[in-house]
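Standup, Tuesday
Yesterday: got the pipeline producing structure tokens again.
Today: sanity-check two examples.
Blockers: none.

Example 1:
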Amino acid sequence: MAQPTKNTDRRRPEKSGKPEKSKKSAKPAELLVAQNRAASYNYTLLDRYEAGLVLHGTEVKALREGKANIRDAYVDFKKSGPWLVNAHIAQYLAGGPWNHEPLGSRKLLLHRNEIHKLSVRTEAKGLTVIPLRIYFRNGIAKCEIALAQGKKTWDRRADEKKKEARREVDESMYRNRRR
């Protein structure tokens, strides 16, 4: 009779001190390119929407480098759809003769009912649509837009007073906790 032998091939592999890599890359889901920080100061933001951007190749490469400015930009509704106007995307350095126009209009991609809702509200009530930020989500360029109403000077002062009061309350609570 044959004697049973130990099978050393079936041992568990030894664990090394290195953590295992996940199958997906460790890149962030959203990469912020440009932000309109003055929007909440100059406007009362009512509704927010996410829109896709129609871009050329050099525009995408310039956005990936973070070269965009949307401070003076706004959304204009034409028969062909919504357009992002006055958004500055700097020219891509290696673009050569195929470069884009920095201040050109760019088409926004929204659902038909969202386009209708926004265009009706901007025409009727004197509201406007402004971009809040441009970012990449999973490699696709997106623009967060908001339906906004312009603030008057006294609105801004009232908001500043509220922020200052909130800041003072938080600061005093922080001081009292530390004692």
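Example 2:
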Amino acid sequence: MLLEDRLGDHRQDVGHGGAKLTRLVALVASGLLLWWLAMADPAKRRATYADVLNAPPNTVAEILFGVLHTHPRPAIAHARAASALGIKLGGPFDFGSGGPGGWIFLDEPELHLGPDPDVVVPDLAGWRRDRMPSLPASAAITTAPDWACEVLSPRTQATDRSDKMDIFAREGVGHLWLVDPIARTLESYELEQNRWVRLGSWRGEATVRAKPFDAVELELGALWIQATA
């Protein structure tokens, strides 16, 4: 082989190597750029529990499908509906006063659900005692509840009706209630084959027997703030 031919082959090999190196550098650079963008913009990365801890004070922070959601503490009508419902259900179903007992209720428990956990804070949640005989000592609970209740507000109802319902279904929560203190309504859902089936909807001053607490009547009027003269 002539010297010129050998030099030509060598230059060709160097050219191919240089092209590969250029492509490799471009891939690394693009990967670093994507990583930087994800870290710079929290919306482009999966939120972690550190984001929950660093949320602004006086807010409720949740991670739903990897996205951090924060919203202010509830308004008075919202808080009243949640508190009154807990009182009405707690006597007969948690403490067994005038009812069958067998449940544990918590207001705004922090739930860590799933293998890469979503952090979900329902307004109320209940566990059957045969599934959770006692409360854990930790701040968060990893056992999905048997019943959850969301008290809707204009700011949170879209998320309550979408992401949170989907997470509760994924985790096998058997029953879900949606309470709207503005419209003064209660919706009851039951999970069947991983899908929510609406069992009923009531409003105003109705007297309700809604699963899974249909053993006792619930007067909806007790949940609403009454207008003053």
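Quick observation on example 2: The two ends are 107 Å apart (CA to CA). The mean pLDDT is 87.
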